[in-house]
Amino acid sequence: MADEPGQPPALTTLSLAEQAPSSHAAEQRITPFDVSGGVDETGKLLPVDYNKLIQQFGATPISPTLLERFEKVTGKKPHRFLRRGIVFSHRDLEKILDRHEKGQPFYLYTGRGPSSGSLHVGHAIPFEFTKWLQDVFDVPLIIMLTDDEKYMHTPKLEISDSKRFTIENAKDIIGIGFDPAKTFIFSDFDYVSGAFYENICRMAKRITINSVRATFGFNDSNNVGEFHFCATQSATSFATSFPHIFGSDPLKTRSIPCLIPCAIDQDPYFRQCREHAEKMKYKKPSLIHSIFLPALQGPGSKMSASIDISAIFLTDTPNQIKNKINKYAFSGGQDTAEKQRELGGRTKDDVAFQYLTFFLEDDNELEQIRHAYEKGEMLTGELKGICIKYLQEYVAGFQERRKKVTEEMRREFMAVRGLTWGGNPNPVPTELVEKKGAQKEKEKCGKPTGELKN
Ligand code: TYM
């Protein structure tokens, strides 16, 4: 468990501070396009303040009580990300737990903006967590690849690049281990049409230029595609966008909500979506947010696919991982071995330790490492060695699975087809937990299992 339950691991600053744009103090800024913990008066980059962010965004921290309920309703010990405050905040997660308890349908929705040929280990965090949620809830999962978003947003990117990245990223995502029977992956360039496009237009009609400016910090220089895209990412939150999965009668499918696992940078899209969903007679999506896997340099920014030395990529070799950690991972240790033995290291500032909180499953081992490092019984080199071992293991395991992902498999995941899922095998009889009104809603939604045919 983290020292302070519900608290994300502390990030630190330092070497990237040299790249800070100016010495003027600046507030932290988190949008889908910009993650910065802010800058103090001396120009030093600050760590992201996640407590402040929850307040600014109006989200809710994941409390120990909610975790207990999660465990009770699903019968599963919470994932290490939940236990350690890495998945730290949510919107309406209780409503999803209620539905699971009663055996009512819902689905999972997450995504990736294909901006590079390979994912980094930071991108793997929400996907790993989503896979776990899919196993726990046994529900359909929809993965959106926003090739249009990246094309609009990246001046040098051609549509052909974007499409190539989409194919490679889809294979990486499949390599995480999703179940093809329950998972639909789509690219916007391919799938935008029909019922999905109708929902995009419904949403676009309600989102004003003013609200996009305020939410994303866009100005008159942003292109109209970037403004419009906000509606596209939202429209995947509605089951009516996927008649091949949920059935083609919107009166039946519109009350099926989704749960969106993502890092908190994506929340602004869904704040807009939630604002308008009920006016469109849809359910608001629920969200569950993670913190960012920090850059190797450890300041208030996330790993970035466009800064090679900030990230460990899922394509990196064991040697590249070793060299990057040894050379760039910011250390919370002391300057000399003597001092380290005397004073101990700061795990909250130490990138190698922070990475272990994400990738090392065993709570006891993590605690032993924390204790030894903080007491000066472990030196920085040893800690980095442990981090290298676990990261190499994680990336090698991924690469093994990725090698087996064929073009045929990718086409299967991306084919427009029905899905099969089980839902909660032992729902609590509805009459025990539900009042009459809610019962009616369940009947409207149809059965939770199999294809919802009309
Ligand atoms: P993208 O490609 O920027 O990021 C993909 C997913 O990875 C998360 N993420 C991280 N998580 C932890 N540590 C990091 N360092 C880190 N960097 C990125 C992101 O939050 C995201 O969950 N517009 C989206 C694509 C999208 C989407 C969605 C994402 C469409 N619909 C629904 C999540 C949920 C994008 O460009 O993601």
UniProtKB/TrEMBL annotation:
Highest taxon of source: Eukaryota
Primary residence: cytoplasm
Gene Ontology BP term (one): tryptophanyl-tRNA aminoacylation
PROSITE patterns the UniProt entry points to: AA_TRNA_LIGASE_I (PS00178)
Annotated EC: 6.1.1.2
EC supergroup of this enzyme: ligase
Compartments, as annotated in UniProt: Cytoplasm
Region span, Disordered: 424-454
Protein's UniProt keywords contain Signal: no
Annotated GO CC locations: cytoplasm
Protein name per its UniProtKB record: Tryptophan--tRNA ligase, cytoplasmic
